[in-house]
Recover the amino acids of this structure.
């Protein structure tokens, strides 16, 4: 929200850095948190349901952002400032509610019976023993393990594609026709995320059912990368082709994480 009040580039750099610091632990923390609640054969779908927050936020936020940019010019502030201020309010409310409503472990969950808590504890403990029985590795060894660096490189490249799409998709759609209003651009941007939302749940359910992670992660990543590459060519010359490529890019970039993280 404070970014909506910046006056200089230095203000923006400082606030963006602080935003990164605040966000850095959230995603890995949630990934760890889900392993406290779900068995291995349910984990990819659990990850997918959590990650649906991304496309759902875009489905709701893209057209809403377009409306704000087109119509909100209150108190002499630019519409882009109101966009940041207004869309920051739900995050603060969600963070406060999380402190009071989210139990740390199944043992603290009031919505589970004693039998359900014991069953879940037993199942998760059994899976943990199986993992430790296969191989034990320290934090230091994990940081030096080539497979960790291999997967980190894959994740880095895929996330570059995802952020490229997230940050530049509105401008890409706008560049197709200067006659599009911000509201129209928001509605077009909503389409790739709506499709990705459905596909990522279906593919993650398939990954859990088959207990297969490699191809469920790699194929969407390749599709997303190819779609992003074609977006930079002259083939993306119309709104329809561009949106279809963006749909493929969105499905690939958002989907690959679920099976990959589900193998944790």
């Amino acid at each position: 929200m404070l970014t909506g009040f910046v006056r200089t580039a230095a203000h923006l750099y400082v606030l963006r850095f602080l935003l990164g610091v605040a966000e850095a632990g959230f995603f890995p923390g949630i990934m760890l948190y889900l392993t406290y609640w779900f068995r291995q054969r349910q984990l990819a779908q659990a990850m997918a349901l959590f990650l649906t927050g991304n496309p759902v936020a875009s489905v709701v936020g893209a057209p809403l952002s377009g409306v704000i940019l087109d119509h909100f010019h209150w108190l002499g502030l630019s519409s882009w400032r109101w966009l940041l201020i207004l869309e920051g309010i739900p995050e603060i409310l969600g963070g406060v509610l999380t402190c009071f409503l989210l139990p740390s472990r199944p043992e603290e969950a009031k919505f589970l019976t004693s039998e359900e808590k014991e069953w879940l504890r037993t199942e998760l403990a059994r899976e943990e023993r199986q993992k430790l029985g296969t191989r034990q590795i320290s934090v230091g060894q994990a940081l030096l393990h080539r497979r960790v660096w291999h997967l980190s490189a894959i994740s880095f490249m895929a996330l570059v594609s995802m952020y490229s799409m997230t940050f530049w998709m509105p401008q890409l759609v706008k560049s197709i026709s200067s006659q599009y209003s911000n509201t129209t651009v928001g509605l077009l941007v909503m389409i790739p995320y709506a499709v990705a939302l459905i596909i990522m749940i279906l593919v993650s359910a398939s990954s859990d059912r088959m207990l297969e992670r490699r191809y469920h992660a790699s194929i969407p990543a390749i599709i997303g990368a190819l779609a992003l590459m074609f977006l930079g060519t002259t083939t993306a010359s119309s709104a329809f082709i561009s949106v279809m490529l963006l749909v493929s890019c969105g499905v690939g970039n958002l989907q690959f994480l679920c099976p990959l993280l589900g193998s944790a």
User: Anything to note?
Assistant: The mean pLDDT is 81. Residues 146-176 form the longest helix (31 residues). The radius of gyration is 21 Å. DSSP finds twelve helices and no strands in the chain.
